[in-house]
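U., I forgot to send this yesterday:
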Amino acid sequence: MMTESNTNEEQVQPEFAAEEIIEMQEEELSEVDQLKKELQDANDAKLRALADFKNFQKRSYENEIRATSSAMAKVVRSILPSIEQMHMAIEHAGDDTIVQGFQMALEGLLQGLAECGVETIIPVVGDSFNPQMHEAMMRQDAEELETDRVVMVMQNGFRLGDIVISPAKVAVSN
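Result:
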């Protein structure tokens, strides 16, 4: 009888060993899957970090451009009253060499501003009124022009890129 129980024990042990082997293989597979998942997560995190860094660089560049434009606009705003005073002095002065000197100085100043990206807004009589570029100082009857057209230009304006530093001052038709 011992022989029968010995054979039964021998038969049970190999089956138990096969189950252990299957469990070990499943654990190894799950470890491999786990490692693959960790690798994928690490790669995803790296890609997110790179995208975040690129977005940071882009925002930093845009902020730098905005800060530069804002600072330039502030400087130009501080100069504009002097430019307008020079315009008025030249318009109301005679035709002597001092006025010509002021005219040359004004042209040089405007040229320097243009090289920095400042554009002069010069409306033309008959243009359509644009509230973003023009400031209506008054309304005036003009039979030959449609409603909301520039009738008279009182003062040119200035802009820096998309920033209107000073709108052009105009009279608008009724």
